[in-house]
Design a protein that fits this description.
5 helices; disordered C terminus; globular; 161 residues; mainly alpha
Amino acid sequence: MPDSPITVAEVAITLAGFSGLFVALQRRPNQFENIERFALYYLLLTSLGAAVLALLSMPLSRFTDASALWLCVISCIYILGLSIWRAWTIARIPHGRYPWARRILGFLQWAIVAALLFSIADVIDRMAMYFLALWWLVFAAAIQFFLQATYSFGNVRTDDT
């Protein structure tokens, strides 16, 4: 197995660590808007999910066909659950800035779920799809980090009233 899972885990944990910056640099961390709270949760779920799924491949790397199937199944279940949570949460809160980016991320996330289902059915190469799903989670975390940075730091209040 190549070093790609370790790289994914390192990048994902780094992104999760940066999410602490948003909490630390806020003047009133207990007064986050709902969209900011969602963004932080999504950033943590995508980055830590990528890290866990990447590290999960280490003990399963000895078994090629069976491990690829299980990695795709576990990834599909995780991203499907994340997609359902994301859709349910976004429906309940205002969209804030960049609604087009959130729509594109949502569409691509459902496309990854569909592609994982095709790989489970052995239509698409399973290991390639597994790595694509890992890098998708890292990409989604990085985009969410950018959106959160521009939203949070654009809304910093200078007065204490």
